[in-house]
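Subject: two folds for Thursday's group meeting

Dear M.,

Sorry for the delay on this. The cluster queue was jammed most of the week, so I only got both jobs back this morning. I'm pasting them in the order they finished. Each block is the input sequence followed by the predicted structure tokens. Could you check whether the formatting survives your parser before we put anything on slides? The first protein is the one we discussed after the seminar.
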Amino acid sequence: MEARIVKQIDTEMDMEALGGMLAPCLKAGDLVYLAGELGAGKTTLTRGIARGLGYQGKVNSPTFTLMNVYQAGFTVYHFDFYRLDEGGLLDLGLEDYLGREGICIVEWPEVGQNLLPGDALRIDIILQNDDYEGPRQVVVRGAGQRAQLIIERLKPLVNSGC
């Protein structure tokens, strides 16, 4: 049975806190996919991960730059595939970043689903009642042993935290 976490997140601060809880569960080479509508909270979650790893600078959505790099406890490569297609991903040189010394966080992974590794942590952020100001349901699941281990480490933190 697939390990997963389902959590209601009520505020932006809670979303960032969830990222902070996830951060110590991650290590170099991990791959995290973030899925959800525009404005759902993907970059906020990424900010929490970066902060949890010790990064104190600004965390922006890389919608126009395609990738932001945050030097934290690990290098965090933050990708946004929203404006790309599979051809654009091939030109990006993504394979140079995957499974290396950093953590890769990919927003809009469905764009590259045929090119991206399947072994990853996937976090779906779902708006409730199409309300951008309201709560979200966050579903954390993963494929592969590493993702399953991350989920098992994250469960007690989430259940006792935000």
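Second protein, same layout:
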Amino acid sequence: MRLSDLDWRLKIPLALTAVIVLTELVVAAALVTRTLRDARADLEASSRNLVTVLGRSLREPMVRDHLWQAFEVVSTPIAARTPDNPLKRIVVLDADRQVFVATDPREIPVATPAAELPPVLAALAARATGAAGFQFLLDRRGAGTQLASGGPITAEDGTRLGTVLLEFDPALYRARLGSLLGELALLSIPGLLLLVPLGWLAGQRLAQPLVQMAQALSRVGHEPPAAIAAHLPPPGRDEIGRLSTQARHMLDGLARKEALEREVLASERLAAVGRVSAAIAHEINNPLGGMLNAIDTVARHGRPDAFTRKTLGLLERGLQQIRATVGALLVEARLDSPALGPQDWQDLQTLVAPQLAARGVELACHIEDAALAPVPLPAHEIRQLVLNLLLNAVKAARPAAPAEGAAAAVELTVARGPGLLAVVVGNTGPPIEPEVMARLFEPFVHPPGQTAGRHGFGLGLWVCYQIVQRLQGRIEVGSEGRWTRFAVTLPVPDTGPPAQPPREPPQET
């Protein structure tokens, strides 16, 4: 897997962590370099001072050729050194480049030529005996580090009497450096352990808006645009904020496009309904006219009893309702209809009674006295509207509390106010899902609890919407808790019912 294929929630923390580690390494390298330079400078300065002191202290013993006094002078620094002092031995050469005195005469006897000294001292002697000033030798080549320094011994008149050579133990020098580097590590490692997690957390926080943006946009095509927009990072003036703003504009355009597609689909369905209704309208209206004429003939010229007259009246109103249904499907149709009266509300209860009994549903009617008076609204259309709502409510009704043995319930509430008629049809049962609610009044969309083939073709609520729109009213749906209610509000005109062409059904309610 390539590094470029990693998620940004890993790339940014890794990059910050790498920068922190690299910075820490650079700082540590700079401190180590500074420590090494300071350690060498300290060693060089201390050895320079020692060479200067020894050069002055050995001046008289060498002039008088006093060997034991010279041995006491060079032995004093060795005896007084501390355990961490890397000074190993001191060798003094005379003017003939032979050993005059050494701190370890058994290893380096008197009169030993400079060329036969240990390699580091021999190399330093070759340089120091021919130079007039202080010499410092730090050689890391070969098997190990070699440390030495030296300087001239001169008389008061400037005559060169000899050379002082100092040899240092590299092991003690390395131990001293190791101690300094250990202290440096103790200071650097805690900072590194603290900064790396902080850098990782900061990288995760910086990458979070990008991850949030990617996760939100990956839902396009699977969830509604409004739901996706809620998961986008907040808009702002930085790059992520501007990108979030553009993504919201894109989702808004996508939502408008989907709404337009739904409108086009609804228009196509309406066109299909128009073609079907136009084809069957004449086939339905012709037998309807004959049956209505037959009922009128029996009622006028026959001698039916009271029960038969009531039955004939119910049949006539039912056939008129069928004609009104066909008129609702045919947008251009205009049918004369009597005003809404108390008999219509009784007929609705009579027509829905078999479905109530078959499903064991209880109906509660609350019709105000003002609503029982004649209302100047088309009775056929109001009957069709309320009957469709009642039948849908009966089919969708479920017990509100099945565990307590409560029966499913349907309610019908009718109220008359100044200039309006309010009808509410409700039923107990589960609430309507949001995705169904958004398309509830479209043709061929089935209400909850209904399926095609068993309870019609999904035109009931669409017909209700057409009637409400024709009467310039409003229909609203509320589905929360254990009740689902359809509320219809219709304006009551001063004279006959209005005849306005219906508008397109809504896409959302």
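Two things I noticed about the second structure. The chain has three domains: 3-182, 226-335, 340-509. The longest strand covers residues 146-154.

Cheers,
T.
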